[in-house]
Every structure is written in structure tokens, then in C-alpha cells.
# Entry
Amino acid sequence: MKLVAKIRLDANTEQAKLLLRTLETANECANWMSNQAWEYKVFTPFSLHKIVYREARERFPLSSQVVVRLLSKVCDAYKKDKKVMRRFSKHGAISYDSRILSYGENRVSIWTLDGRESIPYSAGPRQKELLKHQHGESDLIYSRGKWYLAATCDITDPPQEVVDDWLGVDLGVAEIAADSDGQAFSGSTVKGIRYRHRKLRSKLQAAQSRSAKRHLKKLSGKEARFATDVNHCIAKQIVVKAKRTKRGISIEDLTGIRQRIRARRPHRAVLHSWAFAQLGEFLTYKCVLAGVPLVKVDPRNSSRECSNCGHTEKLNRPSQSKFRCRSCGYTANADYNAALNLRGRASVNRPIVERLPDSSGGFQPQLQATCFSEW
# Structure
């Protein structure tokens, strides 16, 4: 599994200026390459290399490996859409590989326009542990006057446990997550902070004063960082519980939910700020690191189906938080009932079976090691 370790470069004034010139020159070169790719309608690295490599080396004071990395950056940008010419920000991130960047114990040796520079870096215990497995490219990032390196680290996946039971986890807005054990993680704090920031941004944007713009710049990213921390904490607690009780985790496949759901205007901001995909990603990689199986199941009617008798009806859920089955009379918290349904849907997944020839010449079923689908 690949993880990213983000470290901060403690560059002095001269080194910071040199890194900035290097970044600006590299992105200028990337924009020139993009123009050439658009003019010749060539978007693959091998073909574009033949057209632009030599001229790029002559036009820009960049090393051969930096030019190769910029070629990849341009071609990757055109993979998604070849109908619009790509432009790169003056201070956009650029990639380094092991030929132009190396990591030491507390310093990095990085290529610049004036040659190699040895720059100290700051990293926490977790980042330092990840850097022991650093392999592949690292991105040089310039953000708010500070320099960072996002290093790709290749971690060996531990063996996953074989489980007989699952912990169903229902994701939502009012309750960020609710599991089949009855534990819920409220979203009221996150919703309140999002609402307060949304109102404050509206007032500051309407003011259009210099102080308002400075305040907006200061607020930028604060809300997202808070929500990210909350999702990390929730994912960690869920995975620790599943690991301790020797269970797998069953969550909903919510792909495309924003396109399927119609929301009234007052609720659209809340719906589109719902970070369910991020929580799912955190659960995924934490499960892999802990050796806990994770399965993604169909969420259809999970909030309307009775976990007691299986009766499914829209009227089974009279409100956001209440579930009352109109067939058997079972009542429960709606999110808890949905989590029970998700647990049940994971339990009935059939293992993967292949047929192998036996000694008599016939075939016998052979159970494979993987009995669940990862997300």
C-alpha cells in the first residue's frame, strides 16, 4: 500500500528564493510543453518526448531528469480531457524522483537551478517512520510561504484476518457514523462549525475590504482541516473496535450519491460539504494497516428495511432519527437499524470458490484465501 508522508523543509532565506526560482522555471517549462502538445495534438510521454525534449533543454536551465518529470506532468494532465489546453500555476507542485532528490536522517539533498542543496526538514514520529519506506516520487509544494515535500512511501500490507462477523457502519450527515453496536458519532459539532464559517465567509466576501480579504485568507482551509481531523479520529476508533473484537467492517457504497439525491436549496450546502468519501478512504487504509477486512455493500433501502423482519417501506422511517416497522412494529434509531442491515448484507456475501480437479478426474470446490471484497 502506498501512503504519503508530508514533511516541511526548513529552508533559509537564500534556499527559499532558489527553490522559488526553480519552481517558477519548471512550471514555465511545463506550460511551454503543454502548448507544444496542444499544437501537435500529441499527449503521450514517448511521442511528446521526441518533439520537445531537446528544445526544452536549450530553452530552460533544467536538468534532463527534471525535464522528463515535467513531460510526465503534462501528459498526466491531458489524460482526463484532451479537449482543453492545460495551463499550470506559477507555483504549482513539481515531482522529484531518486535521481534528483535523496533523503537523509534530518536533511534532504534536492536539485535546484544552482545545483544540489542540502536542506533540513521537520517531521513527526509517524512521518519519520513512513520515510523509512520511501519509494517513488516526491512532490515539492509551496504553500503560504512555506515549503513541503509529499513523499510516496510503499508500506508492506500485513496479512488480513479471517473473520466470522462484521461491524456495520452507516454514514450520514446528522450522525457522521453509526455502527451496529449502537455507538454513534454525532455530526452536530462539524455542522455547527461549517455553518458558522459559511456565514462568516458570506459577510466577508460581501464587505470586499482589504481587512476582509486578509481575514478570508486566514480562514482558508481551517474548516477542512477540522473536518479531516474529525474523520481521522472516527475512522481510528471504528478500526480499533473491529480489530479488538476480531470483526470485519461493512460500509455503504455511496458512489454517485450527490447526483442521485435531490436536495432543497437550504440543504444543498450541507449535503455537498458531507465528507463521506474522505471518511471511507481513511477507513480503507487504516483497515489495511490493521489487517482488518473491509467490504463495501449496496446501500439501497438500508434505511427503510427492517433489520428484524426485512419489511421494506418508505413509511418505516417517519423522521430522520426514528425507525418504526409498519409490519412487525420494531422500533429503533434509524441509523442503528441501517447499520444492522449493512452488517447483515456483508454476512451473506458468498466466498470466492474455484473448482479444482480431484484424484478421480472430476472437480471439487476449493475455497480461496480471499473471502471478501476490499474497498
